[in-house]
Write a structure and sequence with these properties.
Number of strands: 4
Strand order of the largest sheet: 2-1-3-4
Number of helices: 1
Distance between the termini: 63 Å
Strand content: 15-25%
Shape: elongated
Order of helices and strands: EEHEE
Length: 79
């Protein structure tokens, strides 16, 4: 029967955090969501609405919203 090799950790690796390629991006206050999935976050509302309107004009069928993560309010982007 074949045995699987045992993977040894390097001495410079630690278990305290995720691997560098799996770091979460920093999330800012306004989150642009397309069909319920977060796509990007912005520090102010105007750029989020502008990006949302570009997406909505290109793909009019999708649901585009901007979530204010501080207040919890959601604004629907219309064409």
């Amino acid at each position: 029967m074949a045995t699987r090799p045992i993977l040894m950790k390097r001495p410079d690796q630690d278990d305290n955090g995720p691997p560098p390629n799996q770091a979460r991006p920093t999330e800012e206050r306004f989150v642009l969501r397309v069909d319920g999935q977060a796509k990007r976050s912005f520090s102010s509302k105007e750029p989020a609405l502008t990006a949302g309107s570009v997406i909505k004009k290109t793909y009019p069928v999708v649901m585009v919203t901007v979530l204010d993560s501080k207040d919890g309010s959601i604004e629907i982007v219309v064409g």
